[in-house]
Amino acid sequence: MANPVKKIPDGYTAVTPYLTIRGAARAIEFYKQAFGAEEVMRLASPDGRVMHAEIHIGGAVLMLHDEAPQCQAFSPQTLGGSPCSVILYVEDVDAVVKRAVEAGATLTMEVADQFYGDRAGALRDPFGHRWHVATHVRDVPEEEIRGCVARMFETAQT
Asked: Ranges for the VOC domain (predicted)?
């Protein structure tokens, strides 16, 4: 009996972000510089546009392609922003955020210790995608997190 095909291929997880980007080739270079990405695959059209690419960041797969209006695939720049963000866990959030800003990202939230146990900051990359970059620094019980959230809403209402 032949080995069955794996339903989720090796190296992939059940959920994989797939970004639509205006300037995907430039974005790949940015992600290499900012986040240490490794390019794994790139399929280009005859005019050089990226039809499909895969990069690895910290062991995770991120897929991306150039904007394709004819396929209803629009970038955040065309749409005026994106309602989604990518969360990237790293060993040293301060160093990664600094490197991303130096590479051209815009800092949207300073790196700071968060009540839920992460040290985190936020960025918008030059292509309009939002990134939350974090290093987990403390395990926090769920009840403590819920208490902090409740206090935040109490404070906001006074």
From this structure: 11-136
> What integer is the mean pLDDT of 66-72?
96
Q: 28: which residues sit within 8 A by CB, 6+ positions away?
A: 37, 39, 42, 50, 53, 55, 64
**What is the distance of C-alpha 117 from the center of its chain?**
19
According to DSSP, the β-strands at 50-57 and 60-66 are antiparallel
CATH number for the domain spanning 35: value is: 3.10.180.10
Q: Are 38 and 29 in contact (CB under 8 A)?
A: no
Which tens digit of pLDDT belongs to each residue from 103-133? 999 999 999 999 999 999 999 999 999 999 9
Write out the E strands in the chain. 18-21, 38-44, 50-57, 60-66, 85-89, 106-113, 118-124, 130-136
- Determine, yes or no, domain membership for 11: no
Per-residue tokens: 114: 């968060």
Q: How many domains does the chain have?
A: 1
The one-character DSSP state at 155 is H
Q: Buried (b) or exposed (e) across 122-152, using 16+ Cβ within 10 A?
A: bbbbbbbbbbbbbbeeeeeeeeeeeeeeeee
CB 135 within 8 A of CB 89: yes
Instruction: Show the DSSP H helices in 4-75 as ranges.
Output: 24-35
Task: Determine the structural domain holding residue 23 and report its residue range.
Answer: 18-156
